[in-house]
Amino acid sequence: MLEVENLRIRYPGRDRPTVIEDVSFAIAPGGALGLVGESGSGKSTIAKAIVGLAPVTGGSIAVDGSPIDHARARSRRALHDRVQLVFQDPRASLNPRRSVGDAVADAFVGGATISTSVERGRRLAELLEQVGLPASFAERFPSELSGGQAQRVAIARALGRRPRLLLLDEVTASLDVSVQASILNLLRDLRDELGLTYLVIAHDLAIVRYLCDHAMVLQAGVVLERAAVAELFDEPRHPYTKVLIDSVPEMESPDGRELALVTGDPPDPAHRPSGCVFTSRCPIGPLHRVGREICLSDRPPLSPQGDAEVACHFPITHSAGAREVFDAPRTVST
Ligand SMILES: Nc1ncnc2c1ncn2[C@@H]1O[C@H](COP(=O)(O)OP(=O)(O)OP(=O)(O)O)[C@@H](O)[C@H]1O
């Protein structure tokens, strides 16, 4: 459904760094890929580039087998019929003066199958029902909606043109925890019912674990690991993935050990090191082990490791011996 190859992104402006460096991934139809990584790692930039809101300076994006060229109107139209982006703040995407009904209908009128007001009303009711809202909500205005209801309306809008791929950027981050669960359930049901494909951006790894079948770990615009979700969470191979997972308080560490936090800042994309981007904070790299200077000098390529792919010169192999390696002094942990 989505194929991204060797994507490179640099925002316009003098001396701006390359924020996404050679990122490739694909999502099969009906699949769900989670993008994880700290703030600034480039997750939102990738989603924005897919819909033409961030400049693609290298590489290619194809949706449903068709290469996307944002400069061509026909390509843009085809893209908007197939791909929709849902943001964190649903109210920001709703005009306070437009009713819910008008806001949702705006998203689909003009589409090929809607020509009469009866069809408009029918489709509107169908969309509201799909997101779990009564038809009477069409009369409401954004100020009369709770955060969760507003996000349901934003999702209904996104579904208006029957897209096949949704880009979900922190869609529950602004909601109360109890409401988050209901939105996640809704998204999972919609994926099953409508056969949707998801690209999910979430700080909260539990969300990725719940919604996605695969996950990709980014740091400073570089992919460090990519694997099936169960594999990534149970047997992280990149030390950064391992530290990220251990730093989630509500998520049990795979081996039940004490939780660690990743401290210090990721590298600024303007000063990305020539070696591994995680070296300065790595608990198993050259700061702790002699003979690992290659981490400083050579960027490890993303390479197959079992069923996963990992960009690390010394990946965790999940044999007993390798676990001991990771248990080396952990000065980056608190
Ligand atoms: N419009 C922009 N113009 C210039 N630089 C930008 C712009 N948007 C993002 N950046 C830069 O691109 C890099 C990646 O940012 P991005 O927002 O994609 O990261 P992220 O992983 O989604 O972070 P967060 O989780 O905080 O949203 C950062 O260095 C950021 O400063």
From TrEMBL:
Any one GO MF annotation of this record: ATP hydrolysis activity
Domain of life: Bacteria
One annotated GO biological process: transmembrane transport
Keyword ATP-binding found: yes
Every ABC transporter domain range: 2-245
UniProt keyword list: ATP-binding, Nucleotide-binding, Transport
PROSITE patterns listed in its UniProt record: ABC_TRANSPORTER_1, ABC_TRANSPORTER_2
NCBIfam families according to UniProt: oligo_HPY
Family: Belongs to the ABC transporter superfamily.
UniProt protein name: Peptide/nickel transport system ATP-binding protein
Organism: Aeromicrobium choanae
